[in-house]
Amino acid sequence: MSSIAPSVAVPATQRRPVAVGVLAAISSSHLVNDMMQSLILALYPIFKGQFHLSFAQVGLITLTYQLTASVFQPLIGLRTDKRPAPYSLPMGMTSTLCGLLLLAYAPNFGTVLAAAMLIGVGSAIFHPESSRIARLASGGRHGLSQSVFQLGGNAGTAVGPLLAALVIVPNGQSSVAWFAGAALLGIGLLSYVSRWYQQHLVASAASPRPAQAYALPQLPPRTVAWVIAILLVLIFSKYFYIAGLSSYYTLYLIQKFDVSVQSAQLHLFGFLAASAAGTLLGGPLGDRIGRKPVIWASILGVAPFALMLPYANLQWTMILSMIIGFVLSSAFSAILVYAQELMPNRIGTVSGLFFGFAFGMGGLGAAVLGVLADHTSIIWVYKVISFLPLLGIVAAFLPSRRALGH
After folding, report:
1. pLDDT digits 0-9 by tens, 129-183
2. 5 torsion bin: left (phi>0), alpha (psi -120 to 50), beta (else)
3. Where would I find the Major facilitator superfamily (MFS) profile domain in this sequence (predicted)?
4. Residue 402 domain-assigned?
5. In the chain, how many domains are there?
6. Is residue 64 part of a domain?
7. What's 373's domain CATH number?
8. DSSP letters for 121-168
């Protein structure tokens, strides 16, 4: 059963071609943004030893960054739906740059938290508006554009630990400042994207759309609320699980298999690289066969592998984690586009809500699981979270196109 949520009917003759340059720039800036964010994860073993942190304190770093992003993203999305702010994007990247420099020279745990907060603010500004621009640049291929956008972010998340292993581990915490050049590149890319967005807004204001061709379908508020609630449960399942898997992956490998910090970072890169590769699958596949089958398969489909992971040896841990990352990462693009097409006149709000909730669940998961690890062990935590992908079963309750009245 296909399950594409309602979208605005746009005549084929009025559809714009894909703005390839803009889509490439926004995806590349997403790579830069998330690469800098992932350096926080990659620095955990260094901070844990240098500042004598508990697992709970490590989790608090993730919670601070992701909760900041979680709280502000829906508010920013709601605000920009009413009053677009094209040049907010380079401002957000500037906040991330400031956080990165503070992280490089943080003398204590409190300063690390302040740096994480600045990076969270940058992320909160970046994601809702950049997701909207990716949709505007899509030429109607919304799933593909979101997948390309997410590919940049996941690739950046994967590259971060690799760069940490090659640069930061040998040269120390202060070498984080060397990545300021990447942030400046991101500011330049986002300035180009902002100019295009500003021109798009001016052109749209000068050429109003025909009301009939762009009439929005009306769905009962109860139906919309029900679907959004299901999608948020799926986001909880995905990101609470990913929080435990990625935040403590290096520490898990070090504790269970006694590998070096550098080796653990390279294993983390493999997991995150597989996640980046899988990102490109969900959106285009959802455009072709519908969002519901993609969502169903990507979350519930990883359950067998997740249940096996805590009992695997080092080689199979790497293989299973890469399978999990590849399959699970295809879910978010499909979920986000489903929600955007359900509420096509609230793109910023929907994007902010889902990015914010995802970040919030990731931060909460890292903090809660850090406390659990302190009271038990990180190995026990991996056993507990292995059941979370089973929540993917609720995707069965997502309405099909026929049930939505289309």
Report:
1. 888 898 888 887 888 888 888 888 878 877 887 787 788 878 888 888 899 899 9
2. beta
3. 22-404
4. no
5. 1
6. yes
7. 1.20.1250.20
8. HHHHHHHHHHHHHHHHTTTT-HHHHHHHHHHHHHHHHHHHHHHIIIII
